[in-house]
Amino acid sequence: MNECYLSLSTVHDHSYPPHHVHPLIQEKLHYQQAVDPYVEGYSTDEDGTVASSLLDDYLQFEPSSLKHDFLSLSVDDIKRSSTDPVTSSSVLSQARDKLITHFDTGHKKSKENYVLSEKSFPLTCDTDNTVNLQKCGLVLYFPQKVITTLVESPAAISYDVTVKGLWAEQFLFPKGTQLISSVTSIALNSPLPLDKPVTAQLMHCASITDQSQSKYLSFIVSHSSQPPFEFELLPGGEFLAGSKYGTIQLKEFSLIAIVLVVSATAAIATAIGYQFFQVPLLRCQGLIYYKRESENMKMSFAVLNDLPHNDAIIKFKKESYKKFGEEEWNFPFQMRTDSQLELHFPPDKPIGWTVLPLRKPPTIHERDVCAYTESQTSSDLPPYISVILQATATAAEWLSYEITVSGINIDKKDSIAIVVHKSRNSCISSIPSLELAPAVIEKSNEASEVFREKISTLSSIIGSGTSTIFDRISDEFLSAGLISQSILDDITTVPSYSNYQRGSRLIRELYKRLLKIDTLNDDLIVLCDILTRQEDEQLVQIGEDMKKNSSCAV
Q: Transmembrane region positions (predicted)?
């Protein structure tokens, strides 16, 4: 595809005549209006009636809600569902998916602002000050004597700064742009105006590999006092190649964020002109979850923009995210704007095994990932694809199956393999649900929370380039009884696992154990001791932080 095909469907700007838009942009817009990917390949004729009728009787669902959700199953599949248990299982699993996630855009949207993180800082003018809202990637630098007066000394002049990370559905972003950062609120309580600008740094998810690509990024600001909060482009920001942060000088405070320019009209507004360089790829996270259902195992592959507030959203929406089950591992990758990724399922599977995606085609579009970042969807969950894993009683003992994800960029490759490695006993329908019994419930503990927040960091360290750290620390975990030999064998015998995937799987298996109330205290003490005697300084620091936040650690 030509690199100039960069626009989204919202490129119109009434302040500029239509003929000012670049011809390639117009062509792209025309194509998008002619072909709606959400309805392509679907119909509302007899096929739709069959699908709606079948599930409506069982779920008492409103037929209009099923228009696009269930027609991905073929008519033959639907007609077979009453006699074929595998097909029936997939239909009901898909129905559950839609019941819980409510992806239909007709649902009423909440008008509440979600505060993902908030901090307040009392500061004085006699020194340089730094304000860090780490969970949203915001850093503010207040210089010494940012406020001056002829009467008082700098030490006597105090001011308060309150910063918040927000996630809501009340934001109106400039047309032709998409949000690529947290939306942050900065409030200054000062007796006098600022005499010096404050430096703000905000993390974004664009991958700038060449300085020319910085022209695509812009800060935005909103001075609205009540919703909807309408943003406008803010000149003056700096975005360096190789950096995840944008920097700007501020003397007024309100709501700020960073957007990616994806249309010609927005380019005009930022004085970029029509000469487009290669648009930056967007950094994303792929999350792999598994959940035991009564009749099968379900794997879910979800995609988020790679932003620091993701953990806060997942924690805030934890009741919704429970439908995914337990996160087993994740991996970073990049996507091109206005593109889509697709899962590919090889036809060859072990005898007796079924691997069936619940969305056909099994694709996720980048604009849906963006819509979740902007909170412009009625779902509490990011875009995802669920896959049914089912085994008959006579199936091969193990399923080792590679699902390829294409349409992405990862380590200079255009695909990655998701390795599904599950036993027959975990996936046959006669096995009871794997959901935790009442006696084994999640425990709220500050030390385990420190560990949870550092899962990604620990995965990167332990799964670093060489296997030395992994081998050493996995041996210590095994010797201390923190993991079992079978789990370690399961992790190390998958040949296509990268080092990062092995590290991620090891840490997540350990975190599952920490959630069990019967072993939590003893395990935390042992884990802290193991981490603090490692050579890597980051591992030592994480162990120390866990000790500080745990009443049981010694």
A: 253-277
Q: What is the arrangement of strands in the sheet containing 138-142, beginning at the earlier edge strand? A: 129-133, 138-142, 198-203, 245-250, 238-239
Tell how many helices (H) and how many strands (E) occur in the chain.
15, 24
How far is 544 from 529, CA to CA, in rounded Å?
A: 9
Arithmetic mean of pLDDT over the chain: 74
Give domain limits for the chain: 125-269, 439-554
Query: In the structure, what pLDDT confidence band is assigned to residue 90 with cuts at 50, 70 and 90?
Result: low
Residue 371 CA to residue 375 CA, distance in Å, equals 6
Token output for 505: 């799987």
pTM of the model: 0.64
Q: What's the whole-number mean pLDDT along residues 137-164? A: 80
Contact between 141 and 153 under an 8 Å Cβ cutoff? The reply is no
- Is beta strand 229-230 parallel, antiparallel or unpaired with respect to 171-172? parallel
* Topology, domain 125-269: Chondroitinase Ac; Chain A, domain 3 (2.60.220)
Residue-by-residue DSSP string for 56-111: HHHH---GGGGTTTSTTS-HHHHHHTTT-HHHHHHHHHHHHHHHHH---TTSPPP-
Please compute, for residue 46, the number of CA atoms within 13 A of its CA located in the half-sphere on the CB side: 3
520-523 long-range contacts, Cβ below 8 Å, gap at least 24?
A: 520/443, 520/445, 520/448, 520/552, 521/552, 523/482
Rounded to a whole number, what is the distance in angstroms from the first to the last CA of the chain?
Answer: 60
The separation between CA 74 and the C-alpha centre of its own chain, rounded to angstroms, equals 31
Q: How far is residue 285 CA from its own chain's centroid?
A: 5
User: Quick one: tokens of 487?
Assistant: 């789990």
Q: Which residues contact 24 (CB under 8 A, 6 or more apart)?
A: 2, 4, 5
- Per 3-state DSSP, the chain is made up of helix, strand and coil in percentages (nearest 5) of 30, 30, 40
pLDDT digits (tens, 9 = 90+) for 371-416: 999 988 878 899 999 999 999 888 888 899 999 999 999 888 888 9
Q: Which amino acid is at 532?
A: T
Backbone angles phi, psi at 239, to 5 degrees: -130, 110
Query: Which amino acid is located at 536 in the chain?
Result: D
